């Protein structure tokens, strides 16, 4: 989930950077002056956008993919601990581990 969120936020950040670069093409003659004076600020802003997108994508993926996880796990635990279970070898392993 973390890798997917990082990948999505990197892709969106790259698309945003390229979009801004194409819109600001008229500043190309002043590229050297801008990079000399404002490169740390530009990098900090891009990193801030990346981390905010990462947090947003991570929260959305947790909300979408981890719905009712506790309820599902409780149901599986009940099923494994009953003597008449479908998966007998798993319940036997649990009994041996206890």
Mean pLDDT: 86
Strand percent estimate = under 5%
Low-confidence stretches: none
Order of helices and strands: HHHH
Report the structural category.
mainly alpha
Number of strands: 0
> Count of helical segments?
4
Task: Note the gap between the termini.
Answer: 32 Å
Radius of gyration: 25 Å
> Could you estimate the helical fraction of the residues in percent?
over 70%
User: What does the main sheet amount to?
Assistant: none
| Number of individual domains | 2
> Any idea what the shape is?
rod-shaped
Key traits:
98 residues, mainly alpha, 2 domains, 4 helices, 82% helix
Describe this structure in words.
The protein has four helices and no strands. It has 98 residues and is mainly α. The protein folds into two domains: 67 residues; 31 residues, no CATH class. Helix 1 runs antiparallel to helix 2. The protein starts with a helix and ends with a helix. The model has no long low-confidence stretch (mean pLDDT 86).
